[in-house]
Amino acid sequence: MATIEAVNGCRIDPAAGWFSAQELAGLPGLPTTERRVRSTAEKNLWPSRAKVRSKAREYPYSALPTPTRDYLQTLAHDLIAALPAPAAPTPENTRPPGEIIPQPTPHPTKKTPPALPAGAIAARGQIRRAIPEAKITDSGRDYRDAALLLCSAIDEAIQTLGCSERRACEELARRLVAGEAHAALLRAAQATYLKPRGSAASRPAAAPLGGLTAQTARLSRLRAWYERGRLAGDPGRYLVPGARAATGHHPVQIAAFLRCFCRPSRPTIAEAHRAMAPWLAEHGLPVPSYATVARIQQDLPVTVKYRGRVTGSAWKALMPYVDRDLSLFQANDLWVGDGHSFKAKVQHPIHGQPFTPEVTVILDWVSRKVVGWSVSLSESTVAVSDAFRHAQTVTRARPLVYYSDNGAGQTGKKIDAPITGTLVRQGIAHHTGIPGNPQGRGVIERFWQSTLIPLARSYATCTWRGADENATSKVIKLLARKDGGGIKAPSWRQFLDDLCRVFAEYNLHHQHRDLARSGGDGTPEGTYQARLDRDSIVFGPTDGEIATLWMPEVIRTPSRGVVQLFGNAYFRRDLVGLLAEGAKLRVRYDLHDAAKVWLLDLDGRLIGEAAWNGHAKTAFPVPEIDRLRALRAAGKVKRGEAILAEAQAELGEVFEAAGIDPVPIPVADYLPVPADADDDAATDEAAPATMSHADLVMWLYGSAGADDDAPPESPGDRRQKKASG
């Protein structure tokens, strides 16, 4: 088989299919030394085999880079073409069978130049390709500008002196090496001298330019590329030096790393490195070092190395986001609401024990102003309705859209029912965000960090997760003790006063960067007044309308003039003659007064009031708010019984359910005193005609926390005191 000499003097066979590092050194697309060829093969995971009768390794044709394969393929075609064609079987050259045919003496084959890459040209021993303008770096532009300046100086010398190109290059090189050239030419020569290594700061200002011969050859090469570019229409087309493209990491190593790193358990880089070793060994691949794996992790985009490692809102926080433009809206057009579990313990308004209250806030999205708020014992539709009622009382406006999450308190039937919902009855569109995507309500999620979280940090009972973990655990343990561990929890009255102060300071003094660009003084209150449509509140809801609109409704079917609601029976005598048999109606009730309800037909026309007439299961009407309190207490007792049963089961003390006496729920203590029990008591429990929002919340949830030293007093204790006194 015909062979050819490689660049390093070795004779290789293009058709052999396997090549050693010594044979491949210096070929197009490969390093010039044998050691670097072996290093490249190991880095790129080339398959190999032991060479016959040698310790060297051979690599297949399929693993070689594309320029190398093209070069070897060109060699094979040239050798085949150079071989003599076989002679036709004629009588003159026909030999008897068995005669030995003499082989022709092989002549030395002329070395074939390597094939040029696509889009590249050769000039004076160099190969250069044009680099698009968008891919040229700053250093490449500086090199090109300096080369153009030197080539222009050579052109001027040729035209002025009438000398040859070589003579002009030699004269310019002599002046550059001697430092006698113009300062601009010296700086250009320094910019085109690529031999110095290290950063520009570590090199001297006037680095040596090499010898006269080297400088002359460099100017000659620049002049050649300058002429080739000028013929193509752009003198600087080929003056940008090419840089070797980064090969990057091996795809198999990247795939193995992501396979072990992108898991919800979030393993470390060291754990992923140990986990990927068996998989690579199973497939016969070498295991990279820990440093290589660390570089892979550092070089990968964040959306690649964290896909599957984080999910939900954490993954969406890494993706591009949409900035919502509010320039087309005015104040009171968009309201956004959410509930927040306060990050500190306060005294319960009923029994005085430390607990975590729920704060519900309504924000005007355009101005970020707090238009309404409410405090409750837990998340519920009662809390949202109270906050919305407060917002409409303050602003006298009906928003176009109310935006909230999908919580049970925001999407309950009392608020979101198709016919009887309090939002639907006012014509307010209710939009909810995507579950697990809090970024959509970022305007109110960021609000907590400016108001309620700083307030919680000011309390000694702070349970914020950003605080010291050991200190927070100690505070929770001390508060669980009967004496409170010496930690004084804020009273319910103090908590409400602090909320009023914090929200007022936020509305009047908080500076928002986006608000300053949209008009006003940069505060929520100033922006609200600047972007308020005065005509929108001219026909706003009155006090009577607000009280009526925020009364929840349910649909019931009356029977013989009686409507059943929450265990109470409400009667209206003429109801039998007004409705058809089996017809349904809407029942509107007050959360805090169970003495009567309002009846409406399904179209919204008022029929009249229905009074409580004694058909209820209890001896007196039970307001809905007190019924919810009783259910809340019953749930706590049930969960406590489950914890006790589990503890007894762990000790092996299992008792039959029939042998355990049920824990009585003092429902009567949560119920109000009947109106006919004592006129003075009824007068004391009535709400004042006018009061602030904080005083109203204080009146709704009692005043047990007002006096920190006195224990909470239930309605049952008051009845016992009046009976004995």
List the topology elements.
Layout: E1 4-5, E2 11-12, E3 18-20, H1 21-24, H2 34-43, E4 49-50, E5 57-60, H3 66-82, E6 120-123, E7 126-129, H4 138-161, H5 165-178, H6 183-191, H7 212-231, H8 251-261, H9 269-282, H10 290-299, H11 302-305, H12 312-316, E8 334-341, E9 346-347, E10 354-355, E11 358-364, E12 369-376, H13 381-395, E13 401-404, H14 413-416, H15 422-425, E14 429-432, H16 442-445, H17 447-450, H18 452-457, H19 469-480, H20 492-509, H21 513-517, H22 524-530, H23 543-549, E15 553-556, E16 562-565, E17 568-571, H24 575-578, E18 585-590, E19 593-600, E20 606-612, H25 624-650, H26 667-670, H27 679-685, H28 693-700, H29 715-724
Parallel strand pairs: 8-13, 13-14
Antiparallel strand pairs: 1-2, 3-5, 4-5, 6-7, 8-11, 9-10, 11-12, 15-18, 16-17, 17-20, 18-19, 19-20
Characteristics of this structure?
725 residues; alpha+beta; Arc Repressor Mutant, subunit A; elongated
